[in-house]
Amino acid sequence: MATENPEAQITDDEKGYLTDAESWNEDTARQLAKREGIDNLTGEMMEVIRFMRSFYKAYGSFPILNSVCKNVHQPKECVNEEFIDPLKAWKIAGLPYPGEEVIFYLKRPL
Looking at residues 12-26, what average pLDDT do you find? Predict the structure, then answer.
């Protein structure tokens, strides 16, 4: 499914995840954020997104959320505080569908 935008075209899968992570840039992130109901990406949010992208490139997996916050020098629950749903941050970072196991882990009650 492709979404037309005057600035750029975003191609995503049926779940809304970017199909080509290499086509991502900060303008793409802003467009993806708007889809997720976030009108303004703050500098703190972009730090989280950049870290998630670099972690995925290095390890090919979803990072432990507390390590994200620690590595970007933000409070312990920064991902949940900034994005409410960590999967929104993952989508905005332009990364592929993380899989049912990750989603189950993120949705489980604490």
Answer: 90
Quote the CA–CA distance of 31 and 80 in Å, as a whole number: 20
Residue with tokens 């499914």: 1
- Spatial separation of the C-alpha atoms in residues 77 and 66, rounded to whole Å: 7
Q: Where are the domains of the chain?
A: 2-107
| Residue whose C-alpha is closest to residue 41's, from 84, 81, 82, 95 | 82
- What pTM, to 2 d.p., does this model score? 0.82
Q: What is the pLDDT of residues 29-82, one digit of tens each?
A: 999 999 999 999 999 999 999 999 999 999 999 898 888 989 999 988 888 888
**Residue 102 clears pLDDT 90, i.e. is over it:** no
- Output DSSP code: residue 22: G
Q: How far is CA 20 from the centre of its chain?
A: 14
Tell me how far apart the alpha carbons of residues 23 and 11 are, in angstroms, rounded to a whole number.
9
Write b or e for each residue in 80-101: b if 16 or more Cβ atoms lie within 10 A of its Cβ, otherwise e: eebbeebbbbbbbbbbbbbeee
